[in-house]
Amino acid sequence: MDSNPERPDHVPWWFPGSRWFRERNRLGRRLLLDIMLFSAIVSLLGTLVQLVTDYRRDIRALEDQLEEIRSSYAQSLASSLWSLDEAQLQIQLQGITTLRGITYARVDSTLDTHYEAGSAPSSSAWMLTRDFPLSYESLHLGTLRVSATQREILAHLRSRVLVILATQAAKTLLVALFVLFIFQRLVTQHLTTMAAYTRGLDVGHLDSPLVLHRQAPRGGGPDELDEVTSAINEMRESLRKELGERQRAEMAAAFLSEAGEVLLESLDLGKVLPRIASLCVGSLADWCLIDLVEDGELRRVCGAHVDAAKVPLLDELQRRYPPGKGSASPVVKVVLSSKPVLEPRVSEASLRTMVRDDEHFRLASALGTQSLLIVPLVARGHVMGSISLISAKPERYGPAELSLAQELARRAAIAIDNARLYWRADQAIRLRETFLSVAAHELRTPLLPLQLRLQSLLRRSRGGSPVELSMLLGEVAAAERQTKQLGQLVDELLDVSNLSVGNPLTLRRERVELCEVVAGVLDEMKRQLDASGSEVRQELHAPAVGSWDRRRLEQVVKGLLRNALKFGEGRPIDVSVKPRDGSVLLVVRDRGIGMSEHDRAHVFDRFSRGVSEQHYGGLGLGLYLARQLVEAHGGTIFVESRPGEGSTFTVVLPVEAPSAQGARA
Q1: pTM, whole model, 2 decimals?
Q2: Which long-range contacts (CB under 8 A, 24 or more apart) does 437-442 make?
């Protein structure tokens, strides 16, 4: 016995829909009621149509029977009436009333006699009455009236209505229950599963798809439940992707925010970049490398690995295989092309194309190189280096990671550029202060002797002491040299000032003999040459004529000779002029202290000195102006030097001024 208190009393346990009613399945109840109501209406309409049809058929049969009475009995009744055989006539009428549905028969003769059988109808309701004429040999003898009742037909129809309704009700109930059962098996239980799945759909269950345990629909194609299931799974997948994108966006924003804070903490790249590399490992990569372009060379500045045990391998990789010119490293490719490199899956063959030898391949494999992403550091249109992100898992990097890495590189490049600009500005300020100090000292060098000479002449004249003409002329000549030296220093400062603001040097070209210019400068600097103790050996091959600015060439020669005197240590100096095809070579060689490779690369820079100004003095402008003047003439200047072996400066001047087109090129 089932004692379930939740089951309604009117729903038996064996009822197929009892479980639905116990669970208050509104859809099932509504479906059952709708099916039964619709079936009842259809059954009633069908029953009504069938009853009308049967009624018409029975009425037609009754009318046919009346017509048969006319054809079968009218002639015999007319004969009996003609022969006045009343007994026979009565028997025939009785026979008519025995027929089905015939309740009354009557003969009215023309002699005003009446014969009848059966019971006359009390009313004409539900009665059919027909009158048939009785004739004998074209003589009218009377009329036969026959009445038939429909009550038997109606009784028959009433009995059929009950049977039809009972049958239709049973059939409707069975069909409804069957449809309900099929609907529950094929639809409702799966809808319940869908509802339970949808209610339980949250962030932690987006990876589990909805699966309906049901037989595949016939015909092989998906049905409506399959389409709904697919729609729910598509919605789940869309939510999962959207949630993943949102989580990645939030993580990227948090990562960039943290990286921005690190980049803003300091302008010291030696402290900031290692922290950026460490920030990348774990969240973006298993190991990270940062390379910068410094003085035209690619240099690896830092690296980090997520596994502390592999940091020595990373240090060995940086020490033994730094990126450089001609290297097959993708870092060089990124720096040269300023385009990122994305390798979602790095195969062994692909990795071998990136390394130099087997040992390099071993180190890269040991560090874990299965996926690679390298982005350039670009600021103000210049490539400043690259950030390399490497993962030990394949397919680690895609478009989203590339976008994040490029944004990180953009921010890092701006920070690096700002740090370098700050460093350059700081160096420029320091250089300016140093230059102003040296310039003041250099300007005082000729100014102080000039002042002493003028003061000596004033004391002599005020004290009444005679001033010899020869001495006066000597003092005036010395003062002239010193004022000329001051003028040259001022001219150099003016030239540098014009070049700093972008104004080109003006040239007044004329036909000039370079040998004469060199000889004139040597004669003008004879006192300085004699004081230095350096022997000047000349090798001037005339003619060396070109279209040049004489005063500017004198500046070039003086600058080279002063440099040779300053660093020549009193040793011989060679000056030569050699004509060549279409050009002239000016060579100044000293045998002094020489220069290192680094100093040689910057010797023509503004305010540049390879040695301390406290020992050698100077503004650091002579060689800078010499290069600017030579290049303004369309020529070139270069130096060859080694420490302790002196320096050789070579100037190549074209004999003709460059054309406008060539100058623009």
Answers
A1: 0.52
A2: 438/613, 438/617, 438/618, 438/619, 438/620, 439/489, 439/493, 439/619, 441/617, 442/489, 442/617, 442/618, 442/619
